[in-house]
Amino acid sequence: MDYTHIKPSRDFSDFLELVAILRKECPWDRKQTHHSIKENLIEEAYEAVESIENDDYDELSRELGDLLLHVVFHSKMADEKNNFDIGDVIYRISEKLIRRHPHIFSDTVVKSEKEVAENWESIKLTEGRSSILDGIPAHLPGLIKAHRMQEKAANVGFDWAEWTLAWEKLNEEIDEWREAVDQQNKEEQADEFGDLLFSLVNVGRLLDLNAEDSLRKANKKFDHRFRYIEKKLKNQDRTLEQADLEEMDRYWNEAKLSGSL
Questions:
Q1: Range(s) of the domain holding residue 57
Q2: Of 64, 112, 198, 252, which one has the fewest beta carbons inside 10 Å?
Q3: Cβ contacts of 36 within 8 Å, gap of 6 or more
């Protein structure tokens, strides 16, 4: 069949047609399943986050397009098995948004953002969930999951009154981890280390800091500075193994003082 008439378009229905054609005609696209491309969906989400952090809006528009492709592609595969279609996806998110915003689409009165969050959690409990923690993905990265659980609990009043109290708990967890290390109990060390990380996320959250974002920035700094060490040595036709720690530390501090990261 001739598809030469297909051109880039801003119309959503044209995009649906394009994905349908790919699913039918492309051997690779035709072979895919929900499971085979699920990791790609996660990867595309992180690439969108990276473009946001870089304030790169041209790139963000491309990454959002990749995410949209996954939404439409998964919907197309589901439609083939009569599970649901893109219309169901749009209807269900629309219905949920209307139901969870009664202060806009009904007669509920709210006075603050906090009351909106409290109502949101209360409404979700009426939807068949047994806990406000239901709905947090099991495989969410640990730091993000810790933040979301704490945030959800805080929305219903289960929270520290101020960050200094959470700081005291953090110091307590540090002491308990150190005790486990001194006792050389690996299982206890792992447990206490987890408690310490959870408490650290809590303090950051109360200070309006996001642990995952902060760690991503720290990773980026480490990446930049370590690559600087490698570059300096490579310019001398030397390897990392040929340099001692003192020399690598010197280059690390050079990268740090450059101020680029």
A1: 12-98
A2: 112
A3: none
Contacts 24+ apart (CB under 8 A), 29-32: 29/73, 32/73, 32/77
pLDDT tens, residue by residue, 126-139 = 888 888 898 888 88
For residue 222, being part of any structural domain is answered with yes
Which amino acid belongs to residue 30?
R
Whichever domain contains 70, its CATH number is 1.10.287.1080
DSSP string, 61-103: HHHHHHHHHHHHHHHHHHHHTTS--HHHHHHHHHHHHHHT-HH
Total number of domains in the chain = 2
Q: Which two tokens stand for residue 260?
A: 């680029």
**CA distances for 179 relative to 101, 135, 173, 202, 252, angstroms:** 48, 36, 10, 22, 32
Q: Is this model's pTM higher than 0.85 or not?
A: no
